[in-house]
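Risk mitigation, structural track. In case the binding assays with iron/sulfur cluster fail to produce interpretable data, a predicted complex structure has been prepared as a fallback.
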Amino acid sequence: MNNVDIKSLTIEEIEQIIIKLKQPRFRAKQLFNWIHVKKISNYREMKNIPYALIDILMIDYPLIALNEVSKHEDNKDGTVKYLFELKDKQLVETVLMKYKYGYSICISSQVGCKMGCTFCASTIGGLKRQLLPSEMLDQIYVIERKMDIQIHSVVVMGTGEPLDNYDNLIRFIKLLSHEKGRHLSRRNITVSTCGIIDNINRIAIDVPQINLAISLHSPYNDKRKEIMPITIKYPLNNLIQACSYYTKKTGRRITFEYSLINGVNDDIEHGKDLAKLLKGMLCHVNLIPINSVDERDYLAADKGHILRFKEVLDKEKIPTTIRRSLGQNIDAACGQLRNRHLKDQK
Ligand code: SF4
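Fallback model:
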């Protein structure tokens, strides 16, 4: 028995299977369409595929499907947070947000995370395992199918460090944007990283059309080491150099995410030094009031601090937006819902 996850395969790889099974080549296109356009997770629903072929595929090439465990809606801003169960009973979180331009979805790329950022709930239990391309895709497909919507943009910014699951991430992006599949524009896909420099350099070559976001959170190497231990391996100056290389190589603007934490990184000096660090770079800064996390002591910066911080960056002509902190009533900080669910089960 092969037991190959068919939803993670390219159309050419499915074609190879079909040829091996002595079936006509066009069956590969039909299967790819059922999986990535109609988003079917049950072979029996595939009306134009012969039963005999379905019987083989069901055993040797199973269709991975996520199970919805719970769904929490924030009545104030419409954000919906889903908790999905994977085949091995692990849990992942996905957040659906509604904007004026359409739906945006924030997906997870790993179960847990090993990066150890001190403000983050996802890393508390460490990394459990990598998500397969199919498990990243299904966070989108299940919601689109259930809600009968087409999602406008995808952000890989939920639980996990996507560049720590590089090969699966690239395969996921290629499948999601495939013209015979879901065909989401790569320009509508954003990948957020804490700063794994080697893979920032690779992504600039492998999928240069996507948007890259860097979680920065401090303009100082030592301070950043405290809140984001990845800085020990990849120092801040090297990260900024890699970002400059990325913008030159791709011609794409880079986004810096800066979560403002009360008393930690939200004063005027931080703002001025952040502006110095980013001066001249093709970039945009998103200021985000941090979502508080039960297990951590951090509190969101107050409104006055956030506005003053933005003024400093504006003065230095660094394009800056204050992001709404969505889903505050539904444990929206990444990892919180999963942690709460696991605690409740104990
Ligand atoms: S912020 Fe991202 S990279 Fe850092 S621990 Fe959380 S999930 Fe991992």
